[in-house]
Amino acid sequence: MYELEFDKELIRRYDKAGPRYTSYPTAVQFHEDFGPEDYRRLATRSNQQGCSLSLYFHLPFCNTVCFYCACSKVITANRRRAAPYLQRLHREIELQSELFDTTRPVEQLHWGGGTPTFISHDEMRELMAKTREHFQLLDDDTGEYSIEIDPREADRDTIALLRELGFNRISLGVQDFDPAVQKAVNRIQSEAQIAEVMEAVREYGFRSTSFDLIYGLPLQSVESFSRTLDKVVALEPERLSIFNYAHLPELFKPQRQINAADLPGPDEKLAILKYTIEKLTEAGYVYIGMDHFARPDDELAIAQRNGTLHRNFQGYSTHADCDLIAMGMTAIGKVGDSYSQNVKTMDEYYARIDQDQLPIFRGLELDADDLLRREIINQLICHFSLSFPALELAFGISVSEYFATELAELKAMQNDGLLQLNERGITVLGAGKLLIRNICMVFDKYLRQQQTQRYSKVI
Ligand SMILES: C[S@@+](CC[C@H](N)C(=O)[O-])C[C@H]1O[C@@H](n2cnc3c(N)ncnc32)[C@H](O)[C@@H]1O
Ligand code: SF4
Prior knowledge:
The protein is of the alpha/beta class. The protein is built from 17 helices and 20 strands. The chain has helices at 8-13, 36-49, 82-97, 121-134, 156-165, 179-184, 191-203, 222-235, 266-282, 299-306, 346-354, 368-383, 388-395, 399-402, 404-415, 436-441, 445-458; strands at 53-59, 61-62, 74-75, 105-113, 136-137, 144-149, 169-175, 208-215, 239-244, 286-289, 292-294, 310-312, 315-317, 323-327, 332-334, 338-342, 360-365, 385-387, 419-422, 425-428. The strands form five sheets. Strands 1, 4, 5, 6, 7, 8, 9, 10, 11 and 14 form a ten-stranded mixed sheet that branches. The model has no long low-confidence stretch (mean pLDDT 95). The structure holds S-adenosylmethionine (SAM) and iron/sulfur cluster (SF4). The site of S-adenosylmethionine (SAM) has 16 residues, from strand 7 and strand 8.
């Protein structure tokens, strides 16, 4: 595998918005012809295959709003709002468990948000007990049970409780340590809060901790971010996610409170990214891909070296594909060869559950072409390479015929030094690693259709 190379000119040339491919097809393609009946049919079929399960719970509440936030959340200081939501979530657990063979082991479990630890300790206990009552959780700590933690909403006792409940991985929202940046995005949190969580995480024996950082926030510079990185490296997380902040105030209302004049320009942003890669590499982290770094002895890095890395909605994983049952408002599930999404507002969610209906409002069943392209995109994102003979064997196609248009585009990328292309397949080169999203976009049929439509409109 090639070492990551930072090529500023290439990055600038290929700089265009694109999906992060947590799913393919992406959520934009989900449609409302897909509903609870389809889901029921697919759930029944999935029981015949009987692979392991993955459970996702969306806990949307946050006490205050971070101005950059693009997550699906409900801002409230009123802790009592959690109870009626959790009551519906418990009911959804019952409704979902009726559809599945619940002897299927739950290999992965994730609480995401919003802020999962907004709810009280008793509410956490009850949610996990309800889950355990209806699904087969693993009690030997071999599962990947993870939770997103906001350090302002967790102390030693919370961490101890989460471990007791079965969690073994944590991702911690650090974002930036600089006080001026924190003020500009309305996310004030002290280093002491983060250190306290980290100490407890180590003491109670969590398997792995990941930090979320964001570059491109207001008032950030290479200099300020270098101080943040020093502090991050000193805390020794096993994994890091370095997200790129995209300022889209028309789409995400809280971002309107960010002063656009304070945002670092494109050159400064690229310089921050370059510095971050250098600094983390120097500190011993390896680039896994798509914003993620890990220590070389972390399971993710080992799985990548062994060719056994996977990807799911929460990012990279060492566990093979499971059926994903997603619960809570806006949650996206993946059962058999389908994706499905729950309603996006709390009112709709309560209304559906109160009528004993699954709250699924849209989704998609993948056809043979979607499955083929999803496999390609996953291979590229996880392993930076793609074997054509393996693909031809698995899918019964001829790559040169099926992907004639794509191969022509890949040749241009080869000429630009992003990748190597021959009859055996694709190998992403060091300079192409940061542009892996662009390489995947070549295989995205829907993006191509959109581009063609736009082009047709222009003429
Ligand atoms: C659901 S939040 C994490 C949980 C918890 N609420 C917290 O903030 O610590 C997931 C992560 O998404 C990232 N994020 C949110 N909005 C973002 C944006 N506009 N651009 C880049 N990253 C973003 C943040 O790093 C955040 O930690
Ligand atoms: S970053 Fe986390 S705490 Fe902040 S608003 Fe978003 S979900 Fe809530």
